[in-house]
Every structure is written in C-alpha cells, then in structure tokens.
Amino acid sequence: MSTAIKPKHIGRNISRIRELKDMKQEALAQALGTNQQAISLIENSETVDEQKLIEIAKALGVSVEAIKNFSEEAVLNIIGNTYHDNGIVNAGFNYNCTFNPLDKVVELYERLVQAEKDKVEYLEKLLNGK
C-alpha cells in the first residue's frame, strides 16, 4: 500500500470555487477573454500554468494560494461556523438559541387552552347565575 500524497487537482479546485461563487464556465471564460471549452479543459487539468492561474484567481476574486490549497472540508467548516444576519456575514460568533423553540410553542399552546377554559367557566357562571 502506497502512502504517497496525491497532488492537488488544481482544475477541480478552480471548478469548485467557481461553482461556490455561482459562476458559470461561460462567465469565467468571458472574464478571461476565452471560451467555455477552454475553461472546461482547464478544470479537467491536474495542473495549470502559473500565469494562467494568476489570471483565473483574479477573475474569481480569490488568491492563487486559495486555489492551490482549496479544501472542501475547510469550506464546510467555514460555512458551519458562519451565520447570516440580514445579509451581513458574521464569522466567529454563532448565536444559538438558549431555549428549545418547541418548548415555547407548547407553553404558548397550554396558556391559550387555559385561557379558553377560563372563558368557558366564566360564561357558564354567567349562564347559571340568570
């Protein structure tokens, strides 16, 4: 069994970053002044020319290092530890509920049922009092 480290597939990293940015191959091709087929070839290549990689990084709005070191696991960790509040991204602070929302719903329901019982009791007293 070999323990050799498999080199990163740069083209696949470019593809995933492009997809995460909700960008189509055609849009990236237009930003680079090329066609969709060329982008497809790049994304299927294990290595990419350094100059071309710099251009792609600029078009994607990321650093060359971000493309080279892209990790699906890291992205999932970042997403999991980030929340959106009215369009503002807040990283590092994960404000979770300090109560169980279902408990609150049950509590509200029980209060409403008790209010209805009290109302029925009051109306029965009025009816019997006449």
UniProtKB/TrEMBL annotation:
Presence of the UniProt keyword Transmembrane helix in the record: no
Entry's transmembrane regions: none
InterPro entries recorded: Cro/C1-type_HTH, Lambda_DNA-bd_dom_sf
Domain HTH cro/C1-type: 14-67
Gene3D superfamilies: lambda repressor-like DNA-binding domains
Organism superkingdom: Bacteria
Pfam family membership, one: HTH_3
Keyword annotations: DNA-binding
Keyword presence, DNA-binding: yes
Protein name (Swiss-Prot/TrEMBL): XRE family transcriptional regulator
